[in-house]
Amino acid sequence: MTTQTIRGRRAFLKTAGATSAVLALDALVPAWARSMEVLTNASGTDGQPLIFDLAIREQDFDIAGGRGNAMTINDSVPGPLLEWYEGRDVVLNVTNHMRHSTSIHWHGILLPFEMDGVPGVTFRGIDPGTTFQYRFPVKQSGTYWYHSHSGLQEQSGVYGPLVIHPEARDPVKFDRDYVVMLSDWTFEDPHKVLAKLKKMSDYYNFQQFTLKDLYGMDEMSASEAWAKKIAWDRMRMMPTDIADITGATYTYLMNGLHPAGNWTGLFNPGERVRLRFINGSAMSYFNVRIPGLPMTVVAADGQNVQPVETDEFQIGVAETYDVIVEPGPNEAYTVMAESMDRSGYAAGTLATRPGARSAIPALRKRPLLTMVDMGMDMGGMSMQDEAAVSAAGGSMSDMGHEGHDMGAGGHAMAMADSAGPIVARHGPDTHGPGNISVAQVQRDRLGERGTGLADAGHRVLVYTDLKRFDDDFDSRIPEREIELHLTGHMERYMWSFDGKQFHEVDGPIEFHYGERLRLTMVNDTMMNHPIHLHGMWMELENGHDEKIPRKHTINLMPASRVSALIAADAPGRWAFHCHLLYHMDMGMFRVVHVS
Amino acid sequence: MRKITATVLLLATSQAWSYEPAGTPEDWPNPIPDQKPFWMVLSDRLETRFADEVDTYVWDLQGWYGGDFNRLWIKTEGEGEQGESPENAELQALFSRRFAPFWDWQLGVRHDFEPNPTRSHLVIGLQGVVPYEFEWDSALFVSDEGDVTARIEAEYDLRITQRLIVQPRLELNAAGADVPELGLGSGLNSTELGIRVRYEFKREFAPYIGVSWEKLYGETADFSRLDGEPTSVTSLVIGIRAWF
Description:
By secondary structure, chain A is mainly β.
């Protein structure tokens, strides 16, 4: 039937026509035994659809050094690495062995909307005891992932990596290829986690301001700390609110393994190793670095970008980055993924032999949000004044330590100096009682380092580093602009767009089929939000004209204004939401209707 | 006629379809449960007080159920001498509506089971968070006898460490007119300032120790003196703050 070589571990994969005697059982291989190595010499020219059987179960499961109640795909967390081939159809039979309805969404994949797997938007979901068959042509290549779009199942383990081999020659050259899937695990019932946040939104934050800060015993002076505390208390918000759910309950996983489990990717010195980082977390951003190894970013969100070398990158929830590293001469390098709030980390090793390890770097100091994150107007400066301050450049830097701001005077200005330019101001609409704050001044922060990385003493990837690789820009002028504001209420733990939770809106956002439009988003909140559009690319307007990168998930820094171009070429209903799972669940969700 | 009705119904239904947030058939599930109600029960103060004259106990519990905008609140508080039945005991049931980002208005009833004579009140309240992070709970009470009283409570959390928290608390009580049978004078009639230090073994469970200064004013103080009771009391308080 097929001559394709398939390794035994790829059990769930069978070709069309193959009978039930399907290849050996990956299902029985525990997560810790899997390497997440991608087939390197795979070819997808067979022409037959690839068939995958995925079974979703709820079970007691060994994970994160303990035993918890997990929802698994083919008895593992993460689910199996799916490898597809551009130009070849896939058939996915997803069977629900649980008592609850479930679903699988193919994150970042262009497909007919009925196959997108979002209950209540594209289909009814997969009922207990039934199988849903997904079938669609694969029209792209790169690194993606898949996950449940039902309730909080993603937090319980229903997610897995997805790699699509390109039809044409891969412009990226490498000798080894690994998926590095990052995620967050809790032994608590996710519904209880959500209920706790509803009752006490800082429940998991154990990095709050204390007397120690206020006595100047920590990283800032007492006066600076008091100014900061008073300014944030006045706003009824916290500068330490970096992550809603933290290492207080999470164990951070790399390919399903906690740091002691030490996921290891083997290499021979001199090899080029491709690492496909996927952030499959429910709620956690990570700062990723490999001490001693520069990383060359070659793809973002599955799409090739012009290679750019860096030492660290921040990966938002649901984003993917492919990097090339050339490890050597050491026998081991630590792959460090520190949670953005620095309450914990996932870590693994690139090594020449199993068991070799390198030191795990200490967690750095907790980051704090700034007045820029607050969208504050600095001392009532006008846009022109501030531009003048920015233009004055270095003259401000002696007025305060950059990256440590406070409510008043020179420090604030120095801070504003290092921040992106103000590009707009907020109108009078404060988005109603479901929203706490608005970004009075909105900045273009695409050139800024991610939250907490301003002071990192090495190169850090920023969004403006990303330039698309291919010459396939759609140069049509956008006919229309849609502006959406990211809003919410941390204390009540309600999240929304334009101050409206999903259930409050009276219909989908309408895109006209065939149009080219600009989606402008403003983050009125003080947190980062990874915004994901299903079914169509968002081309991030980061100043590179016809080289702007395509993304399925765009992180919006606090108080930032971001725009993306969209070709509305996929008819149907598509989910559009914040990919922080609990934010989505509490209302930061819309449906886009293309017709 | 029937046909027209059917057509109108059909139109109405299709209208309902198109106004659904997801634009999907009505019998499809909701993609997200953002209307789901939650609930909480909080025992803010559950304490024993040790003072020169007499040792007492105090409870102050509240709970809510509902969505992000509309909630049902139940509040109860009271006090009594150790080993005795309560001298004051009240229960409130309130409908609460968020009207501004940090503020709910509340409307409902309060019943005082103690002291005698018992009273029922209409309650108009304002609860929320004041800038600078003070938790605020205030209410105006109109009793079935027409008496008008008011109460304001404010609390602030200051962290010594991530788990050790100092909480200053201020309560003010006032009345619109004398209510001799309850021993209340008009105007500001009592204040209570407290400082409590709690340790959060878990966020949900925190024993505390603290000091409370109660003081009576004006005619309320006079009424108290007539009864041979003190007009100011300083107590050591030991209690538990807990929620679930």
